[in-house]
């Protein structure tokens, strides 16, 4: 059996994605050396698993169903922009999750704990809910980019209900990553 590169995520509402794609179009005009995430690839990653033996996928799915069964659907809002590690030295440009942030952090912690119980290493840094817009390819003079990102720090991109968590397969290619849903687990607590 082959290994499956996989992760667990929340899919984002199409209206929010459309507004973020429009923002990416504006940020592209800065000509900064950024690899922009394709809109169809935007999601809220709760846990990256890496290469997982195919035989382990059912156990992961069962753990996710158990976690999801303990959670009620909840609202989140996507508002504002920023960069990791900061705007002076951006490496990742992102949109922020504001409303529902703490609940999303708790859900990611529950997913992490369930998968740690299956032998996956626990996350070594705190979960920070965000949607990656792009990754800076070459650090350096990025004043135009950071000024644009900063100018959108209070923008509202929309809100949605988180109603499920999804186990995805990620297949890498020169054209970018392709994501396939392996299992959807409804929040039904």
Description of the molecule:
This protein has a single domain, classed as Cyclic phosphodiesterase (Cyclic Phosphodiesterase, Chain: A), CATH 3.90.1140. Helix 2 crosses helix 3. Helices cover 28% and strands 38% of the residues. The strands form two sheets. A five-stranded antiparallel beta sheet has the order 2-6-5-4-7. The chain has a four-stranded antiparallel beta sheet with strand order 3-1-8-9, covered by helices on one side. It has 189 residues and is of the alpha+beta class. The chain is globular and about 45 Å long. Strand 4 and strand 5 form a beta hairpin.
Give descriptors for this structure.
five-stranded antiparallel beta sheet; 9 strands; Cyclic Phosphodiesterase, Chain: A; alpha+beta; 189 residues; single chain; four-stranded antiparallel beta sheet
How would you sum up this structure in a few lines?
This protein is α+β, with helices and mostly antiparallel strands and 189 residues long.
Determine the N-to-C terminus distance. 34 Å
> Unreliable runs, pLDDT <50, ≥5 residues?
none
Specify the CATH class. Answer: Alpha Beta
Amount of beta strand: 35-45%
Report the C-alpha radius of gyration, rounded. 17 Å
Summarize the main sheet.
5 strands, antiparallel
Q: Shape from CA axes?
A: globular
User: Count the strands?
Assistant: 9
Q: Structural class, judged by helices and strands? A: alpha+beta
The name of the CATH architecture is Alpha-Beta Complex
CATH H-level name... which superfamily?
A: Cyclic phosphodiesterase
Mean pLDDT: 95
Note the run of SSEs as H and E.
Answer: EHEEHEEHEHEEE
Provide the CATH topology. Cyclic Phosphodiesterase, Chain: A
Strand order of the largest sheet: 2-6-5-4-7
User: How many domains, as an integer?
Assistant: 1
Number of helices: 4
* Helical fraction: 25-40%
């Amino acid at each position: 059996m082959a290994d499956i590169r996989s992760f667990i995520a929340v899919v984002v509402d199409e209206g929010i994605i459309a507004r973020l794609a429009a923002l990416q179009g504006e940020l592209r005009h800065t000509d900064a050396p950024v690899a922009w995430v394709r809109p169809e690839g935007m999601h809220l990653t709760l846990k990256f698993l890496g290469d997982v033996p195919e035989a382990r996928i059912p156990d992961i799915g069962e753990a996710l169903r158990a976690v999801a069964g303990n959670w009620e659907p909840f609202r989140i809002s996507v508002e504002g922009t920023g960069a990791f590690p900061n705007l002076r030295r951006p490496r990742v440009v992102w949109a922020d999750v504001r409303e529902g942030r703490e609940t999303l952090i708790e859900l990611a912690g529950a997913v992490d704990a369930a998968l740690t119980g299956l032998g996956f290493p626990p996350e070594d840094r705190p979960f920070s809910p965000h949607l990656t817009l792009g990754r800076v390819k070459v650090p350096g003079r990025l004043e135009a980019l950071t000024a644009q990102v900063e100018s959108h720090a209070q923008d509202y991109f929309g809100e949605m209900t988180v109603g499920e968590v999804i186990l995805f397969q990620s297949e890498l290619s020169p054209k970018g990553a392709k994501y396939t849903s392996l299992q959807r687990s409804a929040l039904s607590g």
